[in-house]
Design goal:
- Its EC number is 2.7.13.3.
- It is a multi-pass membrane protein.
- This protein has a seven-stranded antiparallel β-sheet, covered by helices on one side. A six-stranded mixed β-sheet has the order 18-19-17-16-14-20.
- It contains 14 helices and 20 strands.
- 50% of the residues lie in helices and 19% in strands.
- A hairpin with a 4-residue loop joins strand 1 and strand 2.
- Among the domains are: 130 residues, 2-Layer Sandwich (Beta-Lactamase), CATH 3.30.450.20; 99 residues, PAS domain (Beta-Lactamase, 2-Layer Sandwich); 147 residues, Histidine kinase-like ATPase, C-terminal domain (Heat Shock Protein 90, 2-Layer Sandwich), CATH 3.30.565.10.
- The protein has 634 residues and is of the alpha+beta class.
Length: 634
Amino acid sequence: MPTSPRGRGVRRLLWVLALLGLVLAMWQAAQLARDQALAQLRQDAENELRLSAEGLVGHLSRHDYLPELLASREMVKRFLAAPEAQDAMPLNRLLDRFRATAGVSDVYLLDRHGDTLAASNWHRPKTFIGQNYAFRRYFQEAIAGRPGRFYGLGVQSRERGYYFSAPVWLEETDPDASADGVMVVKVLLDTVEAGWAEQDAELLVIDGDDIIFMASRPELRMKALRPLSGEARQALLATRRYADEPLAASGIEFLDGREDVGQRIGFQHGPLADTEFLGLSRAMPDFGWRMQILTSLAPVTQAQWLAALLAGGLYGVVVLAGGIGWQRLRLRREREQFAERERRTLARARDELERNVQRRTRDLVETNERLSGEIEERRLAEERLRQTRDELIQAAKLAVLGQLAAGINHELNQPLAAIRAYAENASAFLERGRIEATSGNLAQIIELTERMAEISAQLRQFSRKSGDRPTSVSVPACFDYALRLFQSRLRESGVAVERDWPEAEAWVRADLVRLEQVLVNLIGNALQAMSQTPAPRLRLIIEPAGETVRIRVTDNGPGIAAEHLGQIFEPFFTTKSPGNGLGLGLSISARIIDDLGGELTADRAPGGGARFTITLPRAAGTGEPRTKEHDTHA
């Protein structure tokens, strides 16, 4: 039966509407997929940027204590007092040993004029000995009596590094004394960049002058973010921070977007010129830098195309189903006249539907495989996050060791002086034939060496890594161990220590090393808070409560301000002056106790001061009965 002109016009209109609907559905699906993929890409990039920035800060900050530690050594001061009359080689070897132990690049000593007197690289062709670094900012800050920090290109080594410095005082008791020298530690940045190269994104560290100081790609290092003017280039060359590097333009193009929510970035030239990136920035105020991550937008484009194809396929199925329904309605009205035509149409429709189902099934299988890969990537990212957290906990323990180094040094100096006196007496008694007196002096020497070994064993025990599974741990034993680490500070500051716990020893389910770390951190904070208190008193309490045990550390210092109680366990929150802490100790301690299945809280003590309470699950244990003690260290 011929089709009428009106019927052909309606059919053309339906085809046009169907095509417009197909285009609209594919466009809407592509836009939705783009927004979702871009949001996921931005979230992943923000997580990666945060982890990389924290890793760089942790890598640099773990060495800031070393210059001050070396500057306080007697050998350094003795050599600086009269360098012309002494052999510098023993000091060179000492600095080289510290360099190898700490894992830094170089350690060197400058006099008050900026001349290098001793260095760990004395045996290398490009040694620092004899070089003058008075123009460097780290020297100028340290010789003025402040710890110094600096980053730049080495004048001799031509290597990028971060420098820590500390003043060396020969007269520490005179309030008007000036620094007599500067101890400097240089840390290379290549190891951090090597870790960045394994990531899928590009990482840049940009200083305040818009110079790319660090980058995961070597081609982008020591380049300007934007072309420099002649005046800016001459100003940078005058500082000698980057020596005589040309500081050419990096070729980065900022196409659109804002820096706070993400920018679309491209490159005018170089190996990345054919790729567009999503750029995010994170400020690093402690160093005057900002870190930027560039993540390829190719996954977003792929998600758009895939969503458009899936929407088109689904739209085709819907349109086809509607057409089949309409065709079947029409065929029912004309069944007798068009019976044979109906059979052929249904057959064709069935074949087309089967093909669409097969295509849809194949797409779903591919989607499931992609989702499985994304789940595995997320699992690996969570595992890396746990590893980073454990390394941060270990770094915090090492930072506490650095704070305890002065006290331990004082503890070791006393028995060393006594050993020397006993040895000289034994030699004199031996010359006189007084064997019994000689034996007595040797016995005293043996006892003193055992005491020194016990002190060093405490440090080794505290620096070891913790285990993976909780065990039964004695809380009084943990308190005793923590107090041994602070015994020098307790004696010198006259802190009264009160132990308040039941006679039966209390046991909890925890990890021995991590619980000791938390107690050391809490006691160290309490001692620091009571540094200006006239009659400092530290109270340690153990309270069994049913299936749990409460462990309290209380001091009579100034206490915690009410407005700070809600923020005290947040990372990087601290009320200490700059240079006295990163604000990570309580945050890490709270995380450790949470991982052990307990809770760490803080409030103001009833009699004034601060009180920290640890609640942990109780465990069955045995031990010798204990009594309440009250110790005063003068």
